[in-house]
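To assess whether ligand presence alters the predicted conformation, the chain was also submitted together with protoporphyrin IX containing FE. Input:
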Amino acid sequence: MSTTLSKTIPGQRSTPFKEIPVLRARDGIGGTRAFRRDQIGFLKGGLERHGDIYRFRLLGMRMVMLNHPDYIRHVLVDKSEQYDKNAAIFRIARPVLRDGLIATADMDLWRRQRRMMAPFFTPRTVPKFARNMTDETVSMLERWDARTDAEAPLDVTDEFGQLALRIVGRSLFSADISGVAQSFERAFQLANTVLGDFFSFPFPPLSFPTPSHVRLRRAIDCMDECVSEFIKKRLADDSPPGEEPDMLSLFLHAVDEGDGKGMDLEQLHHEVLNICVGAYETTTNTLAWAFYLLARNPEVESKLHAELDEVLGDRTVPEFEDLAKLKYTRMIVDEVLRIYSPAYQLMRHTREEDIIDGYRVPAGTQVLVNSYLLHRHPDFWDDPERFDPERFTPEAIAERPKHAYVPFGSGPRVCLGKHFALTEICLALATVARGHRLVTPEGAPEVVPDALITLHPKGGVHLRLERRS
Ligand code: HEM
């Protein structure tokens, strides 16, 4: 239900606008407490009541929820200059991410940093890191095969977490980071939980030393120490970069085309940490959910095995060049990212008043896109809870609006690591599934997502390893 008003808007003089439907506590969906209890349920209730755009208040903040591909394109692409990351979710994540690429709201700093770093993450440069991805996956399989308690289920969330960190460690620092991977993982999980809770109820302030805020501070220090150890070692080593420089070398030698200068050490530290954080939980969860869904969908798993056998022949390990032929593998990954989109909250803050499809969005509004809900929009996804990689055939993709599916965001701030992530996930999935199956242990309960800062499988994914015959 929307009311058309004919107020005057600066810069759009005589444009009449519609009022955004308001979701009120008395609508039966509840207020802040309901949001805190079940953020996705709360937002879904609003969509069912009001449709693809509505507004509500959360602890004094003016929020607008958007759930239509056209609105999402408008904010992330067409008017991206008008929407910055001075939004609640990034303000909350900033004690961890500081002014690195993911969360910075400083547009000039972001432009400079993105210009310097983007050349190292293109489809042409990512293949250089493919061997790190398959080598580390093969080592993980060797560890799995050597286990003495072969029947005990594996905590695959933890296993893929270690894998993601080892891959990023080798790609960033050319180093084996297994010694610090576990403490980084624990510190990240703690920060994700504390900050996820804080997002649903931001009180008391993080500077107030509650026991959980003190633990958060220690977790941040721990992640910082992991990163600074590697940077310090590299700075002390004055040998010239090798023929295949790692990302840290590339960052250290990058200069901005505008002013001819590189990044200072503090910014370098933040960017390295942003890459570790950006690359860790997202790829971990995608791989864990992928094997969870494969274990519960044997027809999809059989089709995957058939493709791997045909494309790889006698080989047990795929190479980067195989990816172009592993089309069904990629469709599986795309579908996993639809159902359990790890970075599911895309928030922005309006710098100036704007009109979206005739609706007035005042300056200072927090705009919320929730890809968990968008990827289940009934107008674009049939039977959305069904795991069905066929949704990602080229024909099916062409029939849908592009912005009905945004696991990596869109526009200028689209995920910097998108090609890296897709390469890593497809190669790791293919390497594991070539010779192994991960099966659901007898009586294992359904795993549900936990809506933290990222979408985490609650309690982890536990699967039993079998060798493919
Ligand atoms: C499945 C894996 C991944 C998913 C689903 C994912 C998702 C996303 C999303 C949705 C954004 C945009 C957020 C927004 O617009 O508000 C983003 C940004 C970013 N991601 Fe990823 N990501 C993944 C993997 C990676 C990897 C592997 C890296 C690094 C190697 C990475 C580094 C970054 C960075 C640096 C940004 C900030 C880009 C900018 O603002 O310029 N991500 N990611």
